[in-house]
Amino acid sequence: xxxxxxxxxxxxxxxxxxxxxxxxxxxxxxxxxxxxxxxxxxxxxxxxxxxxxxxxxxxxxxxxxxxxxxxxxxxxxxxxxxxxxxxxxxxxxxxxxxxxxxxxxxxxxxxxxxxxxxxxxxxxxxxxxxxxxxxxxxxxxxxxxxxxxxxxxxxxxxxxxxxxxxxxxxxxxxxxxxxxxxxxxxxxxxxxxxxxxxxxxxxxxxxxxxxxxxxxxxxxxxxxxxxxxxxxxxxxxxxxxxxxxxxxxxxxxxxxxxxxxxxxxxxxxxxxxxxxxxxxxxxxxxxxxxxxxxxxxxxxxxxxxxxxxxxxxxxxxxxxxxxxxxxxxxxxxxxxxxxxxxxxxxxxxxxxxxxxxxxxxxxxxxxxxxxxxxxxxxxxxxxxxxxxxxxxxxxxxxxxxxxxxxxxxxxxxxxxxxxxxxxxxxxxxxxxxxxxxxxxxxxxxxxxxxxxxxxxxxxxxxxxxxxxxxxxxxxxxxxxxxxxxxxxxxxxxxxxxxxxxxxxxxxxxxxxxxxxxxxxxxxxxxxxxxxxxxxxxxxxxxxxxxxxxxxxxx
Length: 554
What we know:
The chain contains six helices and 39 strands. By secondary structure, the protein is mainly beta. The longest helix is centred in the N-terminal third of the chain and has 29 residues, at 2-30.
């Protein structure tokens, strides 16, 4: 019996030890340290642990910082992190329990410049996050936030003073991502724009920064006007000012910064004579007339200014224009050296019938033998020579923009340059690959010799070509070498640096010099024929097939 009692007591002790072990194990599971990350900045991390131990912060495999912690803690980084960085935070308690948390740094991605004049904080953060901002722990008031784009703006605040540091918090998934911005001094206001003043004016007018104060000083008197929600000012003088009087104008903004000063001299206001203007038709290349000697003449076309020119010592002015359509309205006025403006004279473009037949005498230049593929520059040489510019085909051949793309065939696809951008291939021999060039590079080259006098008629109707010929100016064109439609079987696709294009090598450039009811006349650089003719319809069909390309001058 004694042995039985000892056995029973032993069994009870074993059970007790087992229960104690189980109980200890459960207690350990229930009291695992809870690691919480509360705040991340570019150079630190804050959080809380419920037991003492060590915290390690990693950016991938790189250790950013570590420390012994208990309760609230801060870990400073040895290098700064950027937006979107995923951090691994590892806690090892003194009891050798481990907890790992992964958090992402999601600060404001863009902070717009904050100055002490606008006093507005705005920018862009991550979508669906809470945005808040503080200056010296004082919260700014959020005005608007877009959950989809992350764009935000705070109400203006007087706390946004020069040099103030703004703490901006982006709160996503319970973790605060911190970024900072500093308020800067707004630049001084731009100097005001002040209209001219004459000895007949009693107002000084112009524009200045909104909500600034305008100061006008003249003859020892200062006038002021505060601009409220407007940038325009109009200040009444106590009396008119004499010619030659100096007037100084400047502005002061809301924070007291002062602009540069504008100084004006009071002018004599006697307008120049109303300009005369020649009759203008849809076959006219020149606008001319007479006004005061040395006056500046302003020309508008359909209310849009196109020219500012000087009249000569006799008051005569002249300005070249491309052909205009009937009904176009020109407005011409003059401003003299004292900035006085004349009345406006209007001239309406009339219609002048196109002659039934015109053949011009333009010089003929052969492209061969020097330029087997140089029809485009040779035709341009003829055009420029007709305009009075002495330049050779060889000079133009050297100057036209070239495409260095080599010709090659890869898996059945042809790769070469793009004539819309520059001359393709070799111009000087048929033994090497080559093609030609289209209207835009030719236009650019022509403008070097006739600046502001080249007109590109590409894409317009053939009537535009005939109108220029009728007015006495030949027209450079691209056509097919057949001077009619080329069947699609002769067309192919090239793959160029700018993308695929459709090309037929049956391409040619000539100078259109005339027309009648049946034929188009042109100088052909290939065979050297002057005023060669082809049926009007077939010529137009070929011209259209190659993009209706045409260039002339005015």
